[in-house]
Amino acid sequence: MRALQRGKPGITGRACRENDLQILVVEDENLIRDVVVDILEGHGHEVLQAGSGEHALQLCAEVTPDLIFTDVRLPGQISGWDVAIRCRQSHPAIPVIYATGYTQSDPRPVSGSIMLHKPYRLERLLESIRTLMRQ
User: Fold this and answer.
1) Are 94 and 67 in contact (CB under 8 A)?
2) What is the pLDDT of residues 55-75, one digit of tens each?
3) Does pLDDT of 94 surpass 50?
4) Alpha carbon distance 60, 135 (integer Å)
5) Neighbour tally for 53: CB within 10 Å
6) What pLDDT score was predicted for residue 101?
């Protein structure tokens, strides 16, 4: 894992190429996280992984990812919503892709974000990344 922040303080590395992103993946299901990480790394991205909201916040304190991909429901006290809100406090421009398997999770209107419903196609995830990075 990279411990240094890319770019200027307060600015994500969005100026870099679309296939050279540092993406924080927050997913408590190991199998899903492994598949997503493999796909993203296979497309040239650097991936930081967290299995909980607490771990994700630790990583956000150390680095500024170009994009956050987080499950909404996570074990512990910190949800995917909380991860995005707290990481964006110091870096408001970070785009976020939320994923949920629960139809009762009401999407929140958050600018610079996309909601995916599980099961989602991996191509839809890659398309969402491209869409957010063009904004």
Assistant:
1) yes
2) 999 999 999 999 999 999 999
3) yes
4) 22
5) 25
6) 87
Report the alpha-carbon distance of residue 134 to residue 29 in Å, rounded.
29
Nearest Cα to Cα of residue 82 among 93, 91, 71, 95: 71
Nearest by Cα to 79 from 59, 60, 98: 98
- Tell me the pLDDT tens digit for each residue of 6-49: 333 333 444 444 568 999 999 999 999 999 999 999 999 999 99
b/e code 30-43 from CB counts within 10 Å (16+ = b): eebbeebbeebeee
- Residue 15 has what pLDDT? 41
Question: DSSP string spanning 82-104?
Answer: HHHHHHHHH-TT--EEEEES-TT
Q: Please, which residues have CB within 8 angstroms of residue 106's CB and are 6 or more apart in sequence?
A: none
Write out the two tokens for 22.
Answer: 């540092």
Q: Do residues 84 and 56 lie in contact, with contact meaning Cβ atoms separated by under 8 Å?
A: no
Amino acid at 129: I
Question: Helices 80-90 & 53-62, crossing angle to 10 degrees?
Answer: 10
What one-letter code names the amino acid at 131? Answer: T
